[in-house]
Design goal:
By secondary structure, the chain is mostly beta strands. The protein is about 0% helix and about 80% strand. It has strands at about 1-10, 10-15, 20-35, 40-45, 50-65, 65-75, 80-85, 90-100.
């Protein structure tokens, strides 16, 4: 992720910020909307904190036999990036991955 424009005369120096990715795969509680065959997560609770989803970046489905895992890449209200997953085999949500600026 390139952020910060530092001006040095006529040139622009782009500063690359370090991103830290961490696999989690822990159960979470999610408030979501199931409508017209689609799933839209709205908020989730992880480690005692509620995160409001401010933007969905993308989603994809991984087939697992007769079941599916629905993955959602999102940005929470604190600007951290998360990947959460809904598993139709267990009807449970998990936080799969987190990306923090470091």
């Amino acid at each position: 992720m390139y952020t910060n424009n530092n001006w040095h005369g006529n040139s622009i120096e782009l500063v690359r910020q370090r991103m830290i990715y961490q696999d989690i795969y822990e159960a979470i509680e999610v408030i979501s909307l199931f409508k017209e065959g689609k799933i839209k997560p709205l908020r989730f609770k992880w480690n005692g904190r509620v995160y409001r989803i401010s933007r969905l970046n993308g989603h994809w489905v991984n087939p697992k036999g007769y079941d599916k895992q629905y993955h959602f890449s999102l940005i929470a209200d604190n600007s951290d990036y998360f990947e959460i997953m809904f598993d139709t085999a267990t009807f449970e949500w998990q936080i799969a991955r987190v990306c923090l600026e470091g």
